[in-house]
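Z., the sequence and structure:
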Amino acid sequence: MRFRFVWVGKTRDQHYKALQEDYLQRLSHFVNVEVIEVKDSKDADRRIAEGKRILEKVDQTSFVCLLDVEGKQKSSHGIAEMIEGWQRDGIREISFIIGGSDGVSSAVAERANAVLSLSFLTFTHEMARVVLAEQLYRGFTIIKGFPYQK
């Protein structure tokens, strides 16, 4: 299984970058991991421009999980169950998309197979990347019965 992370902009804060890399490294013990950072846009129609860049990086056969405040919230055990379901269904690649500061275009939203929310709270995009990677890692430790999740 492969997890592809497609997000808008770079992780500039070195503290978040270090945490992000740590959890992505841990996650790579369970799945292949790829990170694709697409350029953010300064245009008035930034969601459309960023959306085109995002969709260019998503394979047509990939299962797309969009991170959005309006998405479904899951517990850590719920995320583990979601991962197990993907494994059971034989899904080979999941693309996790985190849009820009204005969200994603309707084209990106329509491409999503699942929409997930990390919290009712609002996070910076850099923080959301870390939380997503950590929760996916935690999900695998739950599946494998490792003590990390406690």
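The first helix runs from residue 14 to 27. The first strand starts at residue 2 and ends at 8.

Let me know what you think.
H.
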